[in-house]
Structures are given as C-alpha cells and as structure tokens.
UniProtKB/TrEMBL annotation:
Residues 1-22 form the signal peptide. The keyword Signal applies. Residues 218-280, 281-337 form the SH3b domain. The keyword Cytoplasm does not apply. This is SH3 domain-containing protein. The chain crosses the membrane at residues 56-77, 84-105. Keywords: Membrane, Signal, Transmembrane, Transmembrane helix. Pfam families: SH3_3.
Amino acid sequence: MPAPKKKALPLLAVAISMPLLAACQPQGPVVVDAPNDNCAVHRAIFRQTESSFNEVAQGVALSAAGGVAAGLLVGALTGNSRAGLVTGLSVAAVGITATLVNANFRQLDQEARRQALLQQTVAVDKYGERVTGATQSLERLSDCRRGQVAAIRADLRSGATPRPVAEARLNEVRSWYEGDTMLVGAFDQRLANDTRQLEESTRYVDATVYEQERSFRPYSAILARGGPAYVAPDAGSGQAGQLSVGQTVQVTAQSGGWLQISMGRGRSGYVRSTYLARSTGSRAYVGGSEQSLRAEATDSAAEVGRVANGSPYRVVGTMPGWLVVDQGPSKSFVRATALRPAQVDNSGREVVSSAATAVAARDAFSQGATGLASEARRLSLDG
C-alpha cells in the first residue's frame, strides 16, 4: 500500500507549511462587549490586527516561511528530504539575502540612502503612532475600570447596594477585566513581534547608536498634554502640582511608563510618558498630508488647524507618533506621518534615535498591560 501513502505526502506538506505561512498573518482573540459596559469603547484599538512593522523585516519573515514551505513541498513530492532541505534553504536564503542587501545602510549610495532613511522614518512614525495610541487607550481603559470598581465599593459602603448584589456586579466587572486582559495581551504580543523586526531594520542603519540611544539619559521635554504631576509613579499617590501644555521641563529618571521631572525649587514629580515630547531644537519640516493640528498630542484634543501640503513647519519636539509644531506664542501637535523633514539626516542618527524612543514607549505599554492583569487579579470589594 505504498502508493496511497506517497500521494498523501504533498497534502501533508501543505498541511505543515500552511500554519507557518499563517503565522505571518496577525491573529486576535474574540471578545464580545457587554451592552452595559461603558468602558468597552476604549477597547477598540486593541482589536486592530494590522501589523506596523517595516516592510524590510516583513520580507525576511515571509521569505523564511516561504522557503520552509517550499522545501517541505519539494521533499514530499520527490520523496527526497535532502532535496527538499536544499530547496527550502535556497528559497529562504535568496529572499533574505536580497532583502538584507537592499536594507544594508552602509552599501547604499547617497540618494538610495536618503530614500531608505525616509522609508524607515515612515515605518518608525507609524509604529510610534500605534504604540502611543494604544498606550493612551490603555490609560483610559484602566482609569475607567477603576472608576467602575470604585462606584461599586461606594454603593456598598453607603448601603445603597446589598453585599450579594455588589459581589455580582464586581464579578461582572471581573469578567470584563478578563476580556481586557485577553485583548491587550494579544495586542502587546503583536507589538512585540513588530518591535523585534523594527529593531532589526534599525540596527542595519547603526547598531551602535541604537544601543546607545536605548539607555536612559536626562533630557529636556515639552508637555504634550496638560494635567497633574504626581508625587510617585502612580496616579493614586497624590498630586505634586499642575502642568500646562507646551511647558518645558527636565526629565531626570524613568520608572516604567512614568517619567520623573524636575519642577523647580528642588521639587520633582512624575508624569506618564505619553504626556511628554523630547525637545529637539528647531527643525524644518514640510507638510506631507492634510491632517489635524491639535491642542494636545491626542486624537481627542481640539483641532487648532490643518496641515497644508508643501507648507513649511518648525518642529521643536518629538514623541512616538507625534511632532510638536512651534506656532509662535503657542505649540500645536500633529501626527508624525503628516509632516516630512525638509532635509534628511544622512547619518541615520535621527531615525535611529526615534526608533529607540518608540521601542521604549512600547516597553512602557507592555508594563501597563501587565499592570492591568495584576489589577484584575486583586479585585475585591474591600480593596
């Protein structure tokens, strides 16, 4: 009965290779929002499954998967596993070699280097927008959940809700937390994959500078969102003072998703990292796409103008996914993909620095995701 077995081999090869190719496609859990869950609106971004990593790195992943799949198929059809192995390695190597040679920064001529840096800048900006948007949504989701729990506890203490009813309400919120944890965890995993591939493509530009930029050093920053500074890296720790949009501060330390800032007169405080943009000095940019100029670095902030395609702008600060635009007496904020630099830094240092900052922001998001899961485990009526 050898013939049926041999005919089945190609099907087996396809069955084995398809999951490898499918692994390159983003997946996500299915979580249904409850009609009475007023916090579910903050989950939307975590349902997005599109990948934001650089096309160079994506080409590497697809080439490798394609090579393995081709090798399995050839080996199954010919009955020669060695031939299949050779084919698989050849397909993968050709794809990877072609991709890496195209991305090898040091081998590019000046114009090709400029184009490569522009493409890498776009990739970093898109990644940064996604990370910052997700972090802001996670902050809103976490704050909303805490509000739900606080309301249940308050009703219990006041006697407005009997304990059995309060327990049932808390269990409902606990189930919503579980859905949050699934969605945020899956999103964080997709970001982790994107991050690895973004780091790979950035290291082709300058691995040494990238590692240097990944280590923290004090810097000057601009408030991209107004609000309180806290006495500790915790929103429940009490306020150390109020900060205004556009205010310049000195960042002295980092603690997870929080930054410690100097507030003058020997005082210090903590703000969330999504509230600060790194000061860059004045840089010339040009409008690339018509997007909103906003009063703060968040899509929910008031629109204060629109980017005009081809018009000049002075950028004085950057944060993952956003730029700070100097407009004389005030500052406005725009998504990074709306503007393009008037001149490209051919050394690559600027885009490497931006990538390092964006990856650090993803690290902070990951810690926030861990914190959300920890809150869910600690839920109680008497907390």
